[in-house]
Amino acid sequence: MTMAWTLTALVILLWSSHVVSSIRRASDNESPVAAYLVTVRRPDGLLVGGLLDEEVELWHTYLLGQVCNASDPATAERFPTAESRLICSYSHVVSGFSAWLTRQEVADMASRPWFVEAVPDKAYKLMSLHDDQRWLGSVRDGVWDKGNMAEGITIGVLKPKAGLLIDKAAFAVAPKAHLAIYPTAGMAAAVDDGVDVIVTSVPAAGTDEESYRAVGRGVVVCAPAGSSGPDMLQLESAAPWLLTVAASDTDGRVVTNVVLGSGILKPDVSAPGGIIAQQEDDDAQATSMAAAHVSGVAALLKKARRGWSPAAIKSALVTTADPAGPADGATAMSYLVAGAGEVNPVKAMDPGLVYDLTAGDLVPYLCGMRLGDDRTRDIVGASCAEAGEVAAKDLNYPSILIAMDDRVQQAEARRTVTNVAGDSAATETYRAEVTGAQGVAVAVTPSTMVFGDDAAPKTKRDFVVTVRRLASTPAKAVIEGELKWVSEKHAVRSPMVIVVGETTAASSAAYGAYAAASIRSIS
Q1: What is the pTM (predicted TM-score) of this model?
Q2: Sheet holding 400-404, edge to edge
Q3: Are both 163 and 309 inside the same structural domain?
Q4: How many other β-carbons are positioned within 10 Å of the β-carbon of residue 510?
Q5: Does 113 lie in the same domain as 238?
Q6: What region holds the Peptidase S8/S53 domain (predicted)?
Q7: Where does a domain end: 105, 120, 135?
Q8: Are residues 371 and 320 in the same domain?
Q9: What is the pLDDT of residue 253?
Q10: Dist CA 227 CA 445 (whole Å)
Q11: Chain mean position to CA 467
Q12: Does residue 420 surpass a pLDDT of 50?
């Protein structure tokens, strides 16, 4: 399909309802087949979009023909050919197909050189649709002006996020946005159509390649944090290219727990997810609505700050977020649960400095995670032998996570900031301020950065954060603090977490009554 909108935001459901209903029909007939999403390696030299859709389907049918040999009469009658097994082909963002397969056929497929993985279809529970008018009202101050009310932007499925413009009243984040839904191959089709924002209604597990390539095309991908799964790239939206959102209620309390596993501090931010009872299932439900809120703000930023990358938009949201916690401010919220805090749409429009990244910058990070050269190539299309490695702590992320096991007395994290202030010609001096981080010594070098002066006109500056153990440093601890770059006009705040020793669980005393984050050893 073709879109005429200048800016577009998207709510996407991975695996469409027609596939789910078909699975139920297959289950009713007690068929041994089930729907699988199969990722395959592209043939050497094949470029994305290098084949017509019909040619891709023929290729996938050929691959299916290598493994589809059903001996069960009912299956053979229902699916007489390999072509009849094929549900849909994908080639733009992910290389693969969905098909009806038996477990034995999947096992046979796993031995083929073109096979990457097969994920069985399952039903995902959609999440809460409650709004927080207190938060939405904050965007009236300078964000909803006549030039930026998200006119022409498309948001789908979660209709409260689009809003309705009425004389002397406005509702939701993007009041002039359109609504749209992409089924099944939605992410691939959306990226091919040139959308600007994607928000998923379920955690982004199993969509690593699609979401990475979407971000590489300049798309902001918002995903709910959820609350299950500690593994890198198979958890609740922990990939660093995603904008991962936790949910807070109307009192600013976060209603989800998040497990660490990617070496990156997640979630990134929180946003209203409704008044949700704090039970495990409800915790997961709330984050989808929160992601929808943030996607609206991301859409406003895309329109107001043309040319900003997805990483720059994420950085603006993270470094300008308001610290999360109850309305009375009595208990601060853990970064491991709330991210940097609750998104502040007004401040995000003018963050001062951003931590920028390109899709290419993420390749050495993935190589540093030691996923294996084949898996990394499947996701990013590059070899670790060529890209090298970068430790997770040195990825140019707007938050900082440093792990120090018993062998490490001192650790460093490197960052680069880019000046995006409106008046780039004006001189602006930033000074580093570190708060919290009790139990370790933190130094920032250099401690002062100047932008816009004649002697140093560059828009980028590098700095190093050094963390050192003290005699009083606990043997095992999760220590939180923050780094602020402060000028007369801006305060650029980065959450900072230091994991000391082989810590596997966060102390409730360190995190307050509402923080309960399970942390996997990442050193």
Answers
A1: 0.70
A2: 400-404, 491-500, 477-486, 428-436, 448-451
A3: yes
A4: 15
A5: no
A6: 185-324
A7: 120
A8: no
A9: 45
A10: 36
A11: 27
A12: yes
- Asked if residue 11 belongs to a domain, the reply is no
Q: Are strands 243-248 and 269-272 parallel, antiparallel or unpaired?
A: parallel
**Residue of 149, 372, 66, 371 whose CA lies nearest to 239:** 371
CB 467 within 8 A of CB 411: yes
Cα within 13 Å of Cα(244), Cβ side: 35
Say whether both 54 and 202 belong to one domain.
no
The whole domain housing 109 covers 17-120
Residue 238 DSSP symbol: -
Please count the structural domains in the chain: 4
| 3-class DSSP string for 399-440 | CEEEEECCCCCEEEEEEEEEECCCCCCCCEEEEEEEEECCCE
- Gap between the Cα atoms of 154 and 6, Å rounded: 10
**Gap between the Cα atoms of 369 and 379, Å rounded:** 13
10, part of any domain: no
335, 390: one domain: no
With beta carbons less than 8 A apart as the criterion, state whether 135 and 143 touch.
Answer: no
**Strands, E assignment, 103-238:** 115-120, 165-166, 169-170, 181-182, 197-200, 220-224
Q: Domain for residue 5, yes or no? A: no
**Within-domain flag for 235:** yes
Q: Which two tokens stand for residue 380?
A: 């990013």
Task: List, for residues 184-221, the tens digit of each pLDDT value.
Answer: 456 777 777 778 888 876 655 445 677 888 888 888 98
Amino acid (one-letter) located at 475: A
Longest dimension (CA), the chain: 80
- Closest by Cα among 339, 382, 288, 348 to 142: 348
